[in-house]
Amino acid sequence: MTAIDTLLAGLFDYAGLYPPASLGMLSAVNNYLEYSRSKHGSALGRFIVNLDRLEEIRSIACDSLENFKLSVIASENGDWAALAAQIGAGLPIDAIEIKCSEPLAIESIAKQIPRGLDTYFEVPINANVQPALVAIRAAGARAKIRMGGVVPESFPTVPAIAPMLKALAELRLPFKATAGLHHSMRSMHLLTYEPQSPTSIMHGFVNLCCAAALLYFGGDVEEAQHLLADEDPTAWHVNANSLRWRDRSWSTEQLATLRRQFFISIGSCSFDEPIHDLESLGWL
Q1: Which residues, at least 6 apart from 266, have a Cβ–Cβ distance to it below 8 Å?
Q2: pLDDT tens-digit profile of 219-236?
């Protein structure tokens, strides 16, 4: 595959049920099926759904469920027996996502999750999260970080994100990112689809991918901050064999390693927006 194909393969977990899209189940299911059959369907990852809505998606998707890969959002005290029962009944669940940053709770929950699932623990982006990351690593799980939301204050700062990525890289802890990553490059956008939506600088998913690559392959935090903050689309270039940011470049093989071992996916309530952004850059 080319560098861009490798970077995008299964990158976008579809979260159309969640804000700011907040679609109904039927619309979200139909969108996922449409995206999976589209020209850039290889960029589509899992369908994100709450644990308490699994029967709903089963009843709506019906025979089309064989075309889904589900990632389930659950609370710390989720009904793990019900989750196991759904898996046993053939629901195509291959990941679970839980917001939890207390090390002992992470250890306990990880032991109760049905075997064979990729388990993600969502943790805050701050300087006190190291014990949680160590616990996630020890449990054989993965981290999840939140990069934005529907209000400006939900977006973490560049000086906070870069050390977080460095900590993940040093632990060789795989992670996914979610929220506020609809656009390729860091730039100003509306935060919802409402006419009176607030605006904010949103982090670019290409910025984030490249910052993760930089740190995973030995770069430093200061350079990662410059990369995350870069709003100049002309600073990036992509060809069949590499992705380059200014004087840094990553080969297709390195990007494959990055995606397989470290930067796993992005949760996004939009699939069209990131694809259209890349088309406008001439990358697709």
Answers
A1: 11, 12, 13, 176, 177, 178, 181, 205, 208, 274
A2: 999 999 999 999 999 999
- What is the rounded CA–CA span in Å between residue 49 and residue 204? 24
**Residue 127 in tokens:** 């300087």
**Strand 118-122 and strand 93-99: pairing?**
parallel
What are the backbone angles phi and psi of residue 178, rounded to the nearest 5°? -145, 155
Superfamily of domain 3-281: Aldolase class I (3.20.20.70)
If the chain, 284 residues long, is cut into consecutive pieces of 10 residues, what is the mean pLDDT of each piece? 96 97 98 97 98 97 96 96 95 97 97 95 94 98 97 96 98 97 95 92 98 98 98 96 97 98 98 97 94
| Cα–Cα dist 82/3, whole Å | 40
Pair 273, 182: CB distance under 8 Å? yes
* Burial of 207: CB neighbours in 10 Å, binned 0-12, 13-18, 19+: buried
- pLDDT (0 to 100) of residue 195: 86
Secondary structure (3-state) at 284: coil
Say which residues have a Cβ less than 8 Å from residue 91's Cβ, sequence separation at least 6. Answer: 54, 58, 65, 70
User: Per-residue pLDDT tens for 37-62?
Assistant: 999 999 999 999 999 999 999 999 99
* CA 110 – CA 142 distance, rounded (Å): 11
Q: DSSP 3-state helix, strand, coil percentages of the chain (rounded to 5)?
A: 45, 20, 35
Do 135 and 105 form a contact (C-beta atoms < 8 A)?
A: no
